[in-house]
Amino acid sequence: MTRIGIIIGSTRPNRVGEQVARWVYGLADGRGDADFDLIDLRDYPLPHLDEPIPASLGQYQNEHTREWAAKIAAYDGFVMVTPEYNHSTSGVLKNAIDFLYAEWNNKAVGFVSYGSAGGARAVEHLRLVAGELQMADVRQQVVLSLLTEFENFSVFKPNDYNRPAVTTMLDQVVAWSTALAPLRQETSASV
Ligand SMILES: Cc1cc2nc3c(=O)[nH]c(=O)nc-3n(C[C@H](O)[C@H](O)[C@H](O)COP(=O)(O)O)c2cc1C
Question: In principle, which of 64, 82, 110, 145 could form an S-S bond with 9, CB 3.0–4.6 Å?
Fold first, then answer.
């Protein structure tokens, strides 16, 4: 079964990202076409990038990197749930991404974002990052306004009109994650 990790892209106290990610998980779980897990960056408390060799060379020195690499390697595709901080994604998500390379390659990724402009600017930056990571970023994204989908900017109350976008995004992530499986096998065979 295809495995999709839903990454909570905020570790902030009082984060709203966990509510958003749990909503996505609730819509994903039980679809039957893939297994879905939540991946909480709080469970992988990485320091600022402290690997002496760039991740693309695959020579991880630190135990925390190896643990994070093993976690990400176990998935075929991802949904990144990202806040918008200063018109980009969160530092903690970018840092966690930068720790690894091969573990992201030839996998699909979809985005769910939130912010005053729906977090759209954060996703535009993540799409550039996905290209460098050899990830297939799907077209459909889920854009959640802090003004209309949250009460007092803190309690997530998504309107039902968001659901079709989640379904389409998940359809695309599962389809591309599955289709890219032969490329992932070739890559691991050649390492
Ligand atoms: C450092 C920082 C910068 C922010 N910059 C933006 C921004 O550029 N655009 C925006 O729409 N919201 C911005 N916000 C508001 C966040 O989108 C909002 O606080 C959201 O709840 C953050 O997600 P989180 O609670 O899951 O961490 C910013 C928040 C923080 C903490």
Answer: 82
Task: Please name the amino acid found at residue 72.
Answer: I
Cα of 52 from ligand 1 centre, angstroms: 31
In angstroms, what is the span from residue 94 Cα to ligand 1's centroid?
A: 15
Nearest CA to ligand 1 atom 1: 85
The model carries a pTM of 0.97
Nearest CA-CA partner of 167 in 133, 126, 138, 145: 138
Q: How many angstroms does the Cα of residue 18 sit away from the middle of ligand 1?
A: 14
pLDDT tens digit string along 39-72? 999 999 999 999 999 999 999 999 999 999 999 9
